[in-house]
Amino acid sequence: MGLREYLGLLLSHELEEIRRAGRYRFLRTIWTVQSPRVVLDDREVVLMCSNNYLGLAGHPRLMDAAKRAIDLYGTSAVASRLVSGTMRLHRELEEALARFKGTEAALIFNCGYMANLGVISSLVGPEDVVFSDELNHASIVDGCRLSRAKVAVYPHKDMGVLESLLKREGGRRRLIVVDGVFSMDGDIAPLPEIAGLAEDYGAFLMVDEAHATGVLGERGAGTVEHFGLTQDVAIQMGTLGKALGGFGAYVAGSEILKDYLINRARSFIFTTALPPADMAVALEAIRIVQEEPERRSRLHDNVAYFVEGLRSLGFDVANQHTAVVPVIIGPEDKTMEMSQRLLEKGVFVAGIRPPTVPPGTSRLRVTLMATHTRGDLDLALKAFEGAGRDVGIFGG
Ligand SMILES: *Cc1c(COP(=O)(O)O)cnc(C)c1O
Fold it and tell me: Is 211 labeled as catalytic in the residue annotation?
């Protein structure tokens, strides 16, 4: 047996184990724009698991902006920002992001995952301590690992434990990092309390606004704006790939922070810059987010309507304050069966199970869009009712 065959054998054994544990994953293809109704594999379904919260991913203004940018500036930045990759649109977008977030400056990263790796691993090192909520996103977890700092994990939103960890741990530098909106639970971090603790115990505060940008705050700037804490949070990061309907990410904060990251963040330094079209899309999205606050209200109305509907059907809905609505099922097999039944009834909702969430809390992670119609939502509620009955979710 050659080495190539041997590798194939090793990997297929491992895949078999994943399958046996019922945790095998595969990719499904969407053939259309990521709108409320999509063609998935070979049929039309209501899409209830994309992060296109404001419905911007197929917005004509964003699509036109991308085309214009390609006509003017081509298809690629073809180098790292520090070599020859910084283009006019990078500067313009960073200025617009800083204004949007209410910070001195902003720096673009190629995606949120890379932003979290770059920021955390450049700000802290082996002599430092990171304080991290147990439900923080995997990219934060990986950023902490890469930094080799000591990581003090506290139970979800448990301010008592966070405070005792802050008391107990030393560290040259101390960094609290937290999701503003938790990606699998949709709940909002208690930022005023966290900011108070950060101040009391001399820790820097970093907030991941991936699911809050465009969704929370009067201007849609996120959790930090929602709580009026712009002056208290040293580092805000967020993605351009969810509510903003594009691709890429940002870190917003002081000029000095930006300067430091340009010099130290390896995931900024050693990668080709985002292409012009992505920049133009984000610029247009930030305009729409601010010009059309009604998108945010429509999103929140849809969430309220859908949650009310699910609860009256008897489902355990854990949260209703953001676009992420987790419907807790519990056992993994029931969750996946429920997801399959929903799909058969024309609704696409991904089942989320361990290791993404703790055992026993498997769930359907429903996400809503401003552009879902009442018709879409009613169809989905009917499907939930039928699927719940098929799978035997309800007592009665
Ligand atoms: C999606 C997400 C990221 C990663 O952002 P990308 O731009 O998709 O790489 C980071 N943090 C959280 C909380 C997220 O949900």
Answer: yes
